[in-house]
Amino acid sequence: MIAEVFIELKKGVMDAEGEAVKKALRLLGFKKVKGVSSVKVYRIEIDTNSKEEAEREVREMCEKLLANPVIQNYRIVLKE
Amino acid sequence: MIAEVFIELKKGVMDAEGEAVKKALRLLGFKKVKGVSSVKVYRIEIDTNSKEEAEREVREMCEKLLANPVIQNYRIVLKE
């Protein structure tokens, strides 16, 4: 099974990368860009057929390694 | 309009970050992890109501700044 983990900054946390990209795009002439935010995605292949098991494992991975719960939110999307 | 740009490495290009995450997860005891790949997403807010214009602008942004066409593929998803 494939799990996709979307990790993004919580509201109110400064997104330095997004800001830098926005500035660069506007310098390049893309004046219609109003905002940019950056999201990190990990696509994880797990050796199980159980959605419940996959979700439980991936949630634990997020809490132990992938996400920083102080400043980031995560969302898990499971695919067959 | 919001455009999400998904940028990932082409097949055959070494994904150092994904490999590092995979190793770390396995060291933490997640033995069922078979592979990890990393994807970068930029969520771009554009001041237009035209899907065609948004798509054209974002494609140009990818080609000029966001993606490296030698090693990366990108995919654009438009949202109202």
TrEMBL record, chains A, B:
Part of the FGAM synthase complex composed of 1 PurL, 1 PurQ and 2 PurS subunits. It comes from the Archaea. Its EC number is 6.3.5.3. This is Phosphoribosylformylglycinamidine synthase subunit PurS. GO terms for molecular function: ATP binding; phosphoribosylformylglycinamidine synthase activity. Keywords: ATP-binding, Cytoplasm, Ligase, Nucleotide-binding, Purine biosynthesis. InterPro entries: PurS (IPR003850), PurS-like_sf (IPR036604). Belongs to the PurS family. Part of the phosphoribosylformylglycinamidine synthase complex involved in the purines biosynthetic pathway. Catalyzes the ATP-dependent conversion of formylglycinamide ribonucleotide (FGAR) and glutamine to yield formylglycinamidine ribonucleotide (FGAM) and glutamate. The FGAM synthase complex is composed of three subunits. PurQ produces an ammonia molecule by converting glutamine to glutamate. PurL transfers the ammonia molecule to FGAR to form FGAM in an ATP-dependent manner. One of its GO terms (biological process) is 'de novo' IMP biosynthetic process. Pfam families: PurS. The keyword ATP-binding applies. Pathway: Purine metabolism; IMP biosynthesis via de novo pathway; 5-amino-1-(5-phospho-D-ribosyl)imidazole from N(2)-formyl-N(1)-(5-phospho-D-ribosyl)glycinamide: step 1/2. The gene is purS. One of its GO terms (cellular component) is cytoplasm. It catalyses: N(2)-formyl-N(1)-(5-phospho-beta-D-ribosyl)glycinamide + L-glutamine + ATP + H2O = 2-formamido-N(1)-(5-O-phospho-beta-D-ribosyl)acetamidine + L-glutamate + ADP + phosphate + H(+). It is found in: Cytoplasm.
